[in-house]
Amino acid sequence: MNRRRTTPVSVFVAVVLAAGLSGGCVARAENADPVTRTFPFAGTTLNVRANDVPTDLVPADRGDVGVTRWFDDKSPWSDVRWRLDDGVLDMAASCSVIANCDARFGVEVPRGVRVLRDGEPTELRGAGE
């Protein structure tokens, strides 16, 4: 008699694959509710580190930096961060283990501020122009 044993790992893999293949469980940033945060800013140069998350940078008539985040998360193993410290706006959304999440950021930068993307000069584009 040849019996197959189901291990906890194989059950976990099967559940994750089934969840990932079903259309209703795919994370998409455009489905997420936007969350906005404002960061005080008095500098002349802003370095934006988006850590491979799609990010729109737009000029705005404001004295602070406004960030909107769309983060759709279908798993408990994800992490999102956004902070402004010493002229560096650091934003990230990551999924670890086997996770299903998607993110996008929109950043409104005060007009006249020089903007860098990962330390390299960049142009502001978008609806704020």
TrEMBL record:
Q: Which UniProt keywords apply?
A: Signal
Q: Where is the signal peptide?
A: 1-29
- What protein name does the entry list? Uncharacterized protein
What organism is the protein native to? Actinomadura algeriensis
